[in-house]
Amino acid sequence: MGSEVRVTVPAKINLSLSVGPRRPDGYHDIATVFHAVGIYDDVTLTPAPDGSGVTVRMVGDATEQLPTDDGNIAVRAVRLAAARAGRPDDVQLEIAKAIPIAGGMAGGSADAAAVLAGCAALWPNSLDATALHDLASQLGSDVPFLLEGGTMIGTGRGEVLTPVLAQGGFHWVIAVSDAGLSTPAVYAELDRLREGREVRPPAVADDLLRALRGGDARALGRCLHNDLQEAALSLRPSLSRVLEAGSDLGSLGGIVSGSGPTCVFLSRDREHALDIAVGLTTTGLVRVVRHAISPVEGARVIAG
Ligand code: ATP
Fold it and tell me: Is 134 a catalytic residue?
């Protein structure tokens, strides 16, 4: 048995999320700009005695509601990686969760990406970059991006990645709501709302890419867009008050993150972000308000 490996992995937001029509297989093609933001889960992988299999212990807010069997995507990630590497899956996982659960910030996918990066470090020369990307795509549409981080266009179901030329850094205010929203339920609501409407193929707007090339926070704030927002607001109408509050507090732009209910607000700088965070906290509309910088790297081994 070797020693433990520690991996840190960020959350993602979608600077834009364009959702195409529902496909016959039930999935939707999307065109999105993924952006990794500085809220992190920490995943530790420790080799366990022969035959003990995968176990997981999670610490952090509300983690007791998460499955510890194969329902946990991090457990599935160990099994897949072990099978691909030709190793037994005797690994003990400990996950310190800071990414909001069911918040539209891909926390589960982040843990899976961290596990893949951790397994590659635990079992040297058995999982190359292609294998990791392949396993990540099998685990979920957001997992490949979380191996990379930064800013990337995602197409297909989100797993086909193209780097984006982007400059500068940004400051975000992340407003976390009380109860999560289920991603499949939000997509189903979008399909319901779109019945009888013409739905265009998904695309990324040029003005967003221009704002990122120029590192222009004001322009970026005006370009933020999320096709799932209407559906998230329909299922959780109180989110419109959160978005309004962020706008009243002078944010450069605000959207529901992914399938929600987390809302994210772009600010001019750190001080502006902290002002908005304090303002949002005093509204009492959201449970937790955080400040995060971006872009940040994807899953990284920090010790092992
Ligand atoms: P996404 O943005 O990728 O749609 P999300 O951020 O809204 O996802 P997650 O926190 O990734 O939501 O989790 C959604 C559900 O997945 C949870 O409610 C939980 O039942 C299940 N799940 C399984 N494993 C994990 C994990 N390691 N962390 C969080 N949730 C997990």
Answer: no
